[in-house]
Design brief:
It is built from seven helices and seven strands. The protein is an alpha+beta fold and 192 residues long.
Length: 192
């Protein structure tokens, strides 16, 4: 089995409908919220270098994309999906790492966040440096929250004035913040 994890390119647009179908099927199977996406939206992410695609023997294995909010202050890694035929091969972790690294490269000053109901995604996020946060720490951009309207749990989110839902919010510091947090103490070592 040949697995390629790539920044999506225009030639990958042929997979847009299949990606949207996978997102919808996964949402139905889990009974939880994954925002529906249209093929045109997925293609736009591919054309602007804001997506990662996994190809397994030339077929769609998985996908994720970047969305920016508040003029690049926040970046969401969204739409993580793995084709059920290729699960249990570490694709979700590899895609998530690739989209996280792409986000930090393209937007080094942005905090990277996501919301999810998936325990495996929470584990991957935690390994990448994300920490659980309250919804109030996320972007308050109405366009972000509009993406939740296709979720079957949207009424819970609205009932709680976007303060809580069934999703867990997670955020990683920006690449710039992370560098500032790292402290090199090697110059303080006293050899005796």
């Amino acid at each position: 089995m040949q697995i390629k994890i790539l920044v999506a390119q225009p030639e990958h647009a042929v997979f847009a409908q299949a990606i949207c179908d996978l997102i919808e099927e996964s949402a139905k199977a889990r009974g939880t919220g994954i925002a529906k996406r249209k093929p045109e939206y997925v293609v736009e992410k591919m054309l602007t270098g804001k997506a990662v695609i996994a190809l397994v023997d030339g077929e769609i294995g998985g996908f994720s994309y970047i969305e920016t909010w508040e003029h690049g202050k926040y970046v969401a890694n969204s739409g993580l999906i793995v084709n059920p035929a290729y699960r249990r091969h570490g694709l979700a972790r590899r895609i998530k790492e690739a989209i996280f690294n792409l986000s930090r490269t393209k937007y080094p000053e942005a905090r990277v966040f996501g919301i999810t109901t998936s325990l495996p995604v929470m584990k991957i996020n935690s390994d990448l440096g994300y920490r659980p946060v309250t919804f109030s720490e996320l972007t308050q951009d109405d366009a972000f929250w509009a993406g939740c309207k296709t979720c079957p749990n949207h009424d819970i989110l609205e009932r709680n004035q976007r303060r809580m839902c069934l999703c867990t919010a997670m955020m990683a510091p920006s690449a710039v913040e992370e560098k500032k947090m790292a402290v090199d103490l090697s110059d303080m070592i006293v050899e005796g």
